[in-house]
Amino acid sequence: MSARDSPTIIAAARPSPLELRAEIEQLPLGARHVLIVIALAAAMLFDGYDVFAPTYVIPVATVAWRLLPSAAGLLVSSGLLGFMLGSLLNGAWADRVGRRPTLLGALILAGAGNLATALWGHSFERFLALRMLTGIGLGVILPVTVTLINELAPRRTVNLAVGWVMVGWSLGGIAASLAAWALLRVCGWPVLFMLGGLALPLAAVLALLLHESPHFLVVEQRQAAARRVMSSLYPGESARYLQAQFSLPEESTHRGSCVRLLSPPLRRGTLMVWLCSALSLFSIFGLSSWTPQIMLERGEAFGASVALGGELQLASLLGGLGCGWAADRLGRAPTLIAAWSCGAAAALGLALINLHAANIAFIALAGFFVPGAQLVLNNRTAALYDTEIRSTGVGAQLGVGRLGGILGPYVGGLLRQLFPGTGALFIFIGSALGCCALCGLLLPRERARLEGFKPPTLGSEDRCSIR
Question: H/E/C letters for each residue in the chain?
Fold first, then answer.
């Protein structure tokens, strides 16, 4: 064999690059996926718990701190302002340092902020400041979780997988209502935030369970780490993956760039998901923040009003699974339009009818469809963007959407000051959800990523590489 023949033989022996997304698409969910879903659901439990715990402080703080309804709404909105900042900063962290360290850091900040609120947040101003700080950590959890699931699960099951993750968020809301019902009168409101401090030991547990996203590792050219993660996810393919060279058919020179979200190819989709997210989160947090208080004013007993707030969270648990299941089978666009339309009808029903049975029915319907639609919208957003800006895109959508979430509690309190009765907020929410349904017709089609993909041939490694 001559020297000039050696490079040819070596090149021929080199394995062809494997397109990472195509590999994930063709393999089934395994035991490791189930463990990841459970771990991420546990993280989302604290997100949901912390969103709704302050709503049960409103009746106590309104009296103790002599607050107007609009000021009382700031008890929730302050945390949502931090959520917005955290969601917007998420891309700068997760698309640069990685999904795993970003999630762990967010849990640590959230746990520490909760403990600080319980110990030192005993005035209106300090409570607002500490809630905003805590919200920065909490605002990172949802976008990085959605990104991870979209990068680990096959597209045919990703909506249902995120639905199961969001079960944790709904359980967190239910846990907040149960904790308020059982402990608020006995121990006072600080105990609600002491429980939120359990996010700190959870961060230690997740540090042992979670791997980094293989998409991020390939973008970072950390091929050895990507091989180990793929072998762990799919043990039956480990012999092949441990010798593989992975690639992504994406350009990665502008990772984490918010400017790219508004570039001509992406601008329409970005603006539409931002608008829908703002209106949707306005509705979710308006309902969640004021439902217990409004039900109390409608004549429900204290325990019943808290229970109706818990019903809203239980319905959102079922709605996440139901809407995720529908989106995997019927498509995201028709699911979004139908869910927003049904949510609008339920909100208007609450505005027009004040009967105990009607309150139960309409709250259940609103809780099912409105948060369920938000889950599908989050996945629709993740599908719009490539790996290097995916977390930035989801974070920006949720960050801009949090503006609506911030306004929900505040506008709810303001409407109660300006208009007599309890129907004005529900009319406002029904109108916002109707606008979401109309905007859903204008959302662009999801980008087809795998259709037409051709596996690379020998000698094409340079063309298929991500750099």
Answer: CCHHHHHHHHHHHCCCCEEHHHHHHHCCCCHHHHHHHHHHHHHHHHHHHHHHHHHHCHHHHHHHCCCCHHHHHHHHHHHHHHHHHHHHHHHHHHCCCCHHHHHHHHHHHHHHHHHHHHHHCCCHHHHHHHHHHHHHHHHHHHHHHHHHHHHHCCHHHHHHHHHHHHHHHHHHHHHHHHHHHHHHHHHCCHHHHHHHCCHHHHHHHHHHHCCCCHHHHHHCCCHHHHHHHHHHHCHHHHHHHCCCCEECCCCCCCCCCHHHHCCHHHHHHHHHHHHHHHHHHHHHHHHHHHHHHHHHHCCCCHHHHHHHHHHHHHHHHHHHHHHHHHHHHHCHHHHHHHHHHHHHHHHHHHHHCCCHHHHHHHHHHHHHHHHHHHHHHHHHHHCCCCHHHHHHHHHHHHHHHHHHHHHHHHHHHHHHHHCCCCCHHHHHHHHHHHHHHHHHCCCCCCCCCCCCCCCCCCCCHHHHCCC
